[in-house]
Amino acid sequence: MQIAQINSKQNPTFKTGFYNATREFDSSVMLSRALIDLCGCDIPWVVMANNNTERKEKSRKLFSGFAVAWLTPFVTLPLSNRFAMKYIGKLTKSFWSNNHKAIHISNEFLKDTKSMMSELQRMANKTDKNPLEAIYGKFNPKKKYQQKLNIEELLKSVNGDEEKLRQKLISSKNAVFFSDCVFTFTAIGAFPFFNNEITKKYSGQSGFSAEMSMADKEIVEKRAKNYERGKSKRFLAYMGILTGTTLAMSLGAFASLYSKNGSKFVQNLRNGSKLFDYNRGIYMSRLPLFIGSAVTCIGSVLAARNNTERKDVALRFGIPLTIFYGGDLLLSSLFTNLSDRLFGTKLRKEDGSNKSAINKIFPKIKSIKQVMEEVERGKISKTNKRVSAGIFWTNMLILMVSMGYAVPTAINKMIKKDVEKDILASKGNTLSMPHTILVKSTRMEDFVNRLK
């Protein structure tokens, strides 16, 4: 404890950087999901692979997935936002105009012109810098990068028609959303099909890679014969599901904003459209990310080479999806409730949203950003910030450990049992199992040895 205090005095920027990083991960479901995927799924699952072929297959998936996951928000989306504002909405004259930031406005404020203009004015008064956008500002041909929105210029592009500005902002946001979903989820969901072909080329086998150390080639190939017959149709089926789902999300999120229909159904869609916003214009929000993740899971299921791999994929995707999109909220709520009751912290929301019985057990909690702001205003003590950050990282660690070791251990045992059944059936129950199956142990000590 004493050492930590000394270090914080010598290097106060370390402590500030830690809290800023924690706030960034907490505020972006995409960033926190990427961290859990990397440390709680991808790397441990590569280590826990049954053989080198499966390990290479999972490594390719890891690198391709992260290339897309990081390419999209930090390279593609900033450019897509500018492209949409210039060529779809035609609201900016220059590709590098800072007025492209108007696309960051939440759908919540695009329901009418009054709300839109009020929010745009608030955005125009902001002076905080976005380091990512500053990088793109350096490419400005005139070398002039202004932070603030120019509302007069925006209105001038639509001849002062506020309703037309609202409609064009909706169109621009819709174009970015649709293209991002198609690009991201096509790349991630279709890759398993291509990964199978790469494995087939370099291993000489078309079966499920995890089984290649468990049974003879003939049995592994026999278990995959149905996949080989219909893989093209399965791939087309995935693309159809992806396109249909993306269209449905796009219509649900944006069509209601165009409509002037006053029905309760349309109003509910309008109110829910804010769930499809992008934080800072680059981080996909929780709901579309969850739906997209579920769709890519369908792609992996369709790319599975036999029933065992289908179960493998369903468990590897289903458990993390459930844990990440539900478990983290429950754990955070539980830890926050305990902290507020036992230590007197004030991390639960105080806006009247915690009146129901379920919210008294699993309350809605303040974001780390909100906690930090309240600490800076002197509304609550600094202890709240430390506890809030501690709860976040404890939660992340629990999720990563549970998914990184427990899930692949259970799945590897399931695969072994499935293969054993087919081997016994094909050999008429006369084969000596130890000579046929070579399954690597999933004991904790073996897991540790693989890390060395």
Question: What is the spatial order of strands in the main beta sheet?
Answer: 1-2
Strand content: under 5%
Number of domains: 1
- The amount of helix comes to over 70%
Count the E strands.
Answer: 2
Shape: globular
Output the helix-strand order: HHHHHHHHHHHEEHHHHHHH
Q: How many strands, what sense, and barrel or not for the largest sheet?
A: 2 strands, antiparallel
Query: What is the typical, i.e. mean, pLDDT?
Result: 83
Structural class: mainly alpha
Oligomer: single chain
Cα-based radius of gyration, to the nearest Å: 26 Å
Gap between N and C termini: 31 Å
Low-confidence stretches: 1-10, 430-445
Please count the helical segments: 18
What does this 3D model show about the protein?
The structure is a single chain. This protein has helices spanning 2-10, 12-27, 29-47, 52-88, 113-124, 131-137, 151-156, 162-203, 217-223, 225-258, 264-272, 286-302, 307-343, 357-361, 368-376, 382-426, 433-436, 444-451; strands at residues 278-279, 283-284. The chain has 452 residues and is mostly helical. The protein has one domain (18-76, 173-451). The longest helix is centred in the C-terminal third of the chain and has 45 residues, at 382-426. It is globular and about 80 Å long. The two termini are 31 Å apart.
